[in-house]
Design a protein that fits this description.
Elements: E1 3-8, E2 15-21, H1 24-43, H2 46-62, H3 64-75, H4 79-103, E3 107-111, E4 114-122, E5 125-129, H5 137-149, E6 152-156, H6 162-175, E7 182-184, H7 189-197, E8 201-207, H8 210-219, E9 227-231, E10 236-240, H9 247-262, E11 272-278, H10 283-296, H11 316-331, E12 335-338, E13 342-343, E14 346-350, E15 353-356, E16 371-377, H12 380-387, E17 395-399, H13 403-412, E18 417-420, E19 432-433, E20 445-446, E21 454-461
Parallel strand pairs: 5-6, 5-8, 6-7, 8-9, 10-11, 10-17, 11-16, 15-16, 17-18
Antiparallel strand pairs: 1-2, 3-4, 4-21, 12-15, 13-14, 19-20
Helix pairs in contact: 1-7, 2-4, 2-5, 2-6, 3-4, 3-6, 4-5, 9-10
Length: about 475
């Protein structure tokens, strides 16, 4: 029997999308159709693929408001943030073209009578599995480089944000991409499993939790021919060490800490789950200013005027999970500095929580919601040691006025994204985006996404068929 499912707006509980999950045979058929389209698409001249992508970028620029409204309706994110996400879709195209030229351009050199040439070739059908927190931007970050390289794409959005996925693929089709070159397939875990196990699947590009990424990696262990790129979560540290003792510096440090911990309702994989404060004259004033900024945060619904800093988490179930995590941390000995609690009788709308975890052994886990812990530490050496005390390794940030502190931090902290005097959530499309450990499998996205969308081919090319100047022994 077909399984219907719905997307629910966490801000008001209203159903915003209803549809049917693809069955295993339907998912396999979508991959087969994509595979059938691969030969013609990969043979399409690069200039034509670029032209289509630029048309797609232009359409995205025209539809920012439409995309933003759908994102907000499905996720509960504020419109200011959804607009920011929508604006990234078109920008990804030019960034990808620059990355391709720099990292995947054809190169050659003379080798005797031949030319030694490096070329890049597409893999085939790329299955893109998208997350709910950035339901347009993150899957688009896989799809654009995949299509540029000559792959075909089958995209399964999160079951929490199916409408955003449909809209994104419709923009590709409107730009002129053939329907079987970019497809959307709806469903949850069972549909994803069918897609990745399809015989013609050549790549799996995933953004989501560690548990799901691990399951994908295990499922692909018997298929080493399939390229797998995993961008998973993080237990990210933000270290505060001598940020300055003047009011402006302390306020800046508090601002970056609040953004790190609570932007997007704490639902970014790069959010700071641990704030590590070293001893010094800055420690107490920083904590005081940080809590003042937490108290000043506006939390509410996307329709509120003025707009809040953040809105609800993705669902009532997720809100209840976050509240359980908060209670569990208190039970482990953390001291509440600011309580995480339900607001406006909406289980998905939560106040920002801060827990003093000094001296408490914390679980090495990612809580996807508006909770952060604060820990007092002796010095920078101890802070770096604690920062590295995690099986994750996505993002880390240092707030400090000392050049020597950054020098030590950037050399010793193990993470794929390192920021100085900015939030852990700061990133650029012109840089790699990914982590180590449980945060990824060494295939960063961002500027480096072209790397897993094509493979290098070494060619020795001779335009004339002739014997070499020196034949091998025994062949005379």
């Amino acid at each position: 029997m077909p399984q219907s499912f719905s997307a629910i707006n966490p801000a008001n509980g209203q159903t915003v999308w209803t549809g049917v999950a693809a069955s295993a045979p339907q998912a396999a058929a979508a991959v087969a159709a994509s595979h059938e389209a691969f030969a013609a698409w990969s043979a399409t001249p690069m200039a034509e693929r670029v032209a289509l992508l630029r048309k797609f970028a232009a359409l995205c620029g025209e539809r920012v408001e439409d995309v933003a409204k759908v994102i907000t309706a499905e996720t509960g994110k504020t419109l200011w943030e959804s607009r920011g996400e929508a604006k990234l879709l078109g920008a990804k195209v030019e960034a990808t073209l620059a990355a391709w030229e720099q990292r995947c351009g054809t190169s050659s050199f003379a080798m005797g009578d031949n030319q030694a040439v490096t070329r890049y070739a597409p893999h085939g059908v790329m299955v893109v599995l998208g997350p709910f927190n950035f339901p347009a931007h993150l899957p688009n970050g896989h799809a654009v480089p995949a299509l540029l390289a000559g792959n075909t794409v089958v995209f399964k959005p999160s079951e929490k944000t199916p409408g955003t996925g449909e809209l994104l693929v419709s923009l590709f089709h409107e730009a002129g991409f053939p329907s079987e070159v970019v497809q959307v397939v709806q469903g949850a875990r069972e549909t994803a499993e069918a897609l990745i196990h399809a015989r013609e699947t050549a790549g799996v590009l995933f953004t989501g939790s560690y548990a799901a990424g691990r399951a994908i990696n295990q499922a692909m262990s018997s298929r080493p021919e399939v390229i797998v790129a995993l961008e998973m979560g993080g237990n990210n540290p933000l270290v505060v060490h001598d940020p300055g003792d003047d009011a402006a510096s302390l306020d800046a440090a508090a601002y970056h800490a609040v953004v790190s911990a609570f932007v997007t309702s704490g639902q970014r994989c790069t959010c700071a789950r641990r704030i590590l404060v070293t001893e010094g004259p800055w420690a107490d004033p920083f904590v005081e200013r940080f809590l003042e900024r937490v108290d000043a945060l506006t939390v509410g619904l996307p329709t509120d005027d003025p707009e809040p800093f953040y809105g609800p988490v993705i669902s009532e179930a997720q809100g209840e999970a976050v509240l359980r995590t908060y209670t569990d941390l208190v039970d482990k000995g953390c001291r509440p500095l600011r309580e995480t609690r339900m607001l406006q009788s909406n289980p998905a709308l939560l106040s920002p929580g801060v827990l003093d975890a000094t001296g408490v052994e914390l679980p090495d886990a990612e809580c996807f919601g508006p909770i952060t812990t604060l820990r007092r530490l002796k010095d920078l050496d101890e802070a770096i040691s604690v920062a590295n005390d995690t099986r994750y390794g996505l993002a880390a940030s240092l707030l400090s006025q000392r050049d020597s502190a950054w020098d030590a931090f950037v050399k010793r902290v193990r993470a794929g994204i390192l920021n100085w005097n900015g939030p852990t959530t700061g990133a650029s499309g012109k840089l790699p985006f990914g982590g180590i450990g449980r945060s990824g499998n060494h295939r960063p996205a961002g500027f480096y996404s072209v790397d897993y969308c094509a493979y290098p081919v070494g060619c020795l090319e001779g335009s004339t068929l002739s014997l070499p100047g020196s034949t091998l022994p025994g062949l005379d």
